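Note to self: the last two entries modelled the partners one at a time, which told us nothing about the interface. This time every component goes in together.
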Amino acid sequence: MPCKVLVTTGATYPFDGLIKLVFTLRVLKALSTLGVTHLQIQYGNTPTSRIVYENCVENCQTVIQSTGIKVNGFGMTEDMATEIRSSWLVISHAGTGTILDTLRSPSPKPRLIVVPNPILMHGHQAEVAAAMEDMNCLLYAKSATEDSIISALDKLDRQFTELPEKKSLAGLIDYEAGVLRRDKARVQKEQ
Amino acid sequence: MDITAITIRDALDLLHEWRHPVLVLVFSCAAVGVAGVGIFFLLVTTLVQSYRQPPEKHPHGASAMFVLGSGGHTTELLGMISQLDFALYPTRTYVSFSGDTLSTVRALQLEREKSVTTTSTTTTTTSAAPAPAPGQVTTLALPRARTVGQSYFTSIFTSAACGFECVFAVAKVRPDIVVCNGPGSCVLICFAALVLRATRIKLTRLVYVESIARVNSLSLTGRILISVVDRFIVQWPALAEQYKDKGVEYFGILA
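The predicted structure of the combined assembly is written out below.
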C-alpha cells in the first residue's frame, strides 16, 4: 500500500525546479490517486530553496487539504538511508549517491523516479540514470517536465529489475598488493 | 684556402692546449649531458620493465595508500575498501586533499567499523594464530591541485605545489599499492609513485577505478591515467568495449 513519497534534491546543488514540479495540481492529484498519504520533501541547504518550498506549500494549500496528503519538509538529514527505506516511492535528482542508496536499500525497495537537473544537463551526471532506466531499474523523467513525471507515475506498477549485485575488487587489489596466497593469485592470473 | 680548414686547424690547436677553460666547460657539459641522458633512459627502461613484472609478494602484509577524491568518489572508494581484509594491510594511508575534511572523517569512521567487526570475528574463531599487528593508520591532507572554477593558468602553480607534496608524501610512505578513483589530484599521486618505481625504491602498484558516473566516456583523470596504471577498471560495459585494446577491465558495478 503506497503511503510515503520522498522527494530529494540532493545536498550539493540546489534543485528548486524539482520542488516546483512536485507541487503542481496534476502531480499532487496523481500522487493522491496512487494512494499517497505522506510527502517528505528534502529541499536542500540553501535559504532560497527553503523559501521556494514554503511558497509551494502555501500555493498548493487547497489541493493539499482536499487530497489529505501530509507534507513535511527538511533541508538535509544525516540519515537519508532511513528516509529512503521507509518510502514507497523516491522522486530524486540524478545524483549517483541517492540512486544507489535507493536501489541498494533492503527490500521492499522503494520505486525510483529520477528527474535530472536541467542546469546540470550538459554534464555526464544523468548518464547513470539513463543507463539504469535501460536496465529497467528505475524510471527516468528525462525532460524534467510535469508530463514526464506524470507518465513516470503511470508506469509505477511495472515489475522493476533488481540492480545487479555489487561486485568486489578485493581479489584484484589483494593480488596487486601481493598479499594473496599463491593459489588465489593463480586463479586471478588465469582470468 | 677555405674557411673550414682554418677552423678545424684552430680547433686542433685548442685541443692541444686541453686545459683551455672553454674546452673544459664544453667537455664537462657534454659529460653531464651524456650522463643525464643515460640516467633518463635507465629510469625509463626500469619503469617500462616494471609494468611487465608481476606484483611483488608481501606475505606478511602490504602497505596500502587510498586516495580519497571527495564526495561521491570517496563514497565509492570507501565502499570498495570496506571489502578488504585489513589484516592483510597492516599499514593503511588515507590521502585526501585540503578543504575536504569529510573524507578523512569518513575514512576514520570506516576504520572504527572495521576494527569492531574484526575483533568480533577473532573472538568467535579463537585459533592459535597470533593476532595481527595493530594497524598503522595514517591520514594525510595534501594541498589541492585545482579547485573547481580555478583558472587554468594559476592551476599550473597550485598543481606544482601539490605535485611536490605528493612526491614527498609517497616517498615517505612508500606504499606497495595505491588505489584511486579520481578526480584530478590523484594523477599527481600516481606520477609520484612512478618516480618510486623508476628509481626502484619501491615497486608500487597502481589501481584506478573509474567512477560509476562515467557510463559512455572516460573522465579526464581516467584518460591521463589509462596508460600509467597497472590495472584500470570501469563499471559500465560500453566503456570496457570502447577501451578494450587499452587493457581496461570490467567486472560489473562495484558500488
